[in-house]
Amino acid sequence: xxxxxxxxxxxxxxxxxxxxxxxxxxxxxxxxxxxxxxxxxxxxxxxxxxxxxxxxxxxxxxxxxxxxxxxxxxxxxxxxxxxxxxxxxxxxxxxxxxxxxxxxxxxxxxxxxxxxxxxxxxxxxxxxxxxxxxxxxxxxxxxxxxxxxxxxxxxxxxxxxxxxxxxxxxxxxxxxxxxxxxxxxxxxxxxxxxxxxxxxxxxxxxxxxxxxxxxxxxxxxxxxxxxxxxxxxxxxxxxxxxxxxxxxxxxxxxxxxxxxxxxxxxxxxxxxxxxxxxxxxxxxxxxxxxxxxxxxxxxxxxxxxxxxxxxxxxxxxxxxxxxxxxxxxxxxxxxxxxxxxxxxxxxxxxxxxxxxxxxxxxxxxxxxxxxxxxxxxxxxxxxxxxxxxxxxxxxxxxxxxxxxxxxxxxxxxxxxxxxxxxxxxxxxxxxxxxxxxxxxxxxxxxxxxxxx
Length: 452
Description:
Alpha-Beta Plaits, five-stranded antiparallel β-sheet, globular, 41% helix, alpha+beta
């Protein structure tokens, strides 16, 4: 946004809570009008935006026909997401979208149009904008040190919502007038990982990939989405997932780092609390959640030709709360080495219910010594080669096999939730068999799978 005066933006006050900003969903920018009312709204918004542009930033020459169509498409997609996201009160109507050129290239909003509409609509009072808010990648809730970069939050103003209502379009009826063209979106994303100049963390950005291996991964995820599309889950939107690979810029990257399946449809079952996930139904029938016990620790052992003792609670340490032990393990795999301080999120989560600093209750060194004594395999962790990205990839491959086999061999769909899956209760047994066998096929030993 080099040519943009950020002083003109209606930046929100600092009073917005971090919880609301973190609850913001990402806008896909793929809405297109499907009714006369929607087309009329888009035409009106385009006209008043161009009028504003002519006043504040006159162009030397008129846009060519193709450029004008692209601009109108951007107006449509951006406005529809602004109106649509006003429904989500847990985020106070905000959504986020980064300026990543590669990612925006799959949408109807180019980087140039994004910058223009951000400036013009903020000046016109149609959109509210926050300051930059950094998003970081986490592994089991703990920071991996990988930043996804900074992203503003955006939301429709009352003026825009009132304008849309004049055309009979509200946040609740938006989908009656606009539809998503999700075919533009690739179901596979590859991100880079670059250390910052201070050596205190890394940043991440989308990378452009092509070639047989990339296309093979795209096809695998498309097959899973086709299965989910016929699965019958009673969600607000047909479930869709995408696969996120990490460290695409590493010399040894071969679609073998990261690779988790993330929900990219509106009703994000992965972010629901466990008790809410239990309420999901499939064609009106109840579902169950199958959870792989200590999946990441199981995989760490298996990668070194060892087998985790599933008869013993792997996170039990005398005198230490289980969630503390589990959180420290997750943080160690996220960092790829021994910790030097209690992780921030673990400390915050401990403070909330207890009112006490975790460092006043436990000595980090003593707890880590006990944890490593119980699981010496933790000494094998190594940042960049044997850490969260490797464990995540191995786990995701098991779930890819399970989901594909369930769909192709049994006509059954399941919703992935990282180290668990949700399936219709009537298909519990076949799903459990497929999941256990997927781990067994990959590692030569069988995990414990619990039914919730």
